[in-house]
Amino acid sequence: MTRYVTLTEAMAVVDRNSWHVRDLGLLDSVCQRPRARMYDVELYEGLDLKAATIMDSANRLHPLHDGNKRLSLILVHVFYALNGRRLVGDQIEMADFVIEVADTHLPLEKMSEWLDAHTRERRG
C-alpha cells in the first residue's frame, strides 16, 4: 500500500526550513494530487509518477513565498522514504533536474523516467 505525504508532514518540512506558506490550500493540493482517482481508478500509477506529481505541483502552484523548488525535492525524498525507496545521485544533478522541471514544465512522464533512473530500494 502506498504511503502519501500528509499536509502535517509537509508543514514539518516547511517549519524545519523556516519557510513561509503563501497558500495552505495549495500546499495541501501538492500533497493530495498523487492520490487522485477518477471512477475509482488511480490517475497516477506507480511511485515514480506519483513522485513526479509532487514535484510538478510544488513547482507550478508555488505554495510557499520562497523555496518551492527545494520543497519539491524534499517532499519527493520524503515520499520515497515513506515507500521504502531513496533518491540517488549527487546534489548538483538533482538541483539541475529540479530547475529544469520548474523552468520547462517537463511532462510528468519524463519526470517519472528520470526519477525511476535515480531511485533505489532503501536499505535497513
From TrEMBL:
<protein>
    <submittedName>
        <fullName>Type II toxin-antitoxin system death-on-curing family toxin</fullName>
    </submittedName>
</protein>
<dbReference type="Pfam" id="PF02661">
    <property type="entry name" value="Fic"/>
</dbReference>
<dbReference type="InterPro" id="IPR036597">
    <property type="entry name" value="Fido-like_dom_sf"/>
</dbReference>
<feature type="domain" description="Fido">
    <location>
        <begin position="1"/>
        <end position="117"/>
    </location>
</feature>
<dbReference type="InterPro" id="IPR006440">
    <property type="entry name" value="Doc"/>
</dbReference>
<dbReference type="InterPro" id="IPR053737">
    <property type="entry name" value="Type_II_TA_Toxin"/>
</dbReference>
<dbReference type="GO" id="GO:0016301">
    <property type="term" value="F:kinase activity"/>
</dbReference>
<dbReference type="InterPro" id="IPR003812">
    <property type="entry name" value="Fido"/>
</dbReference>
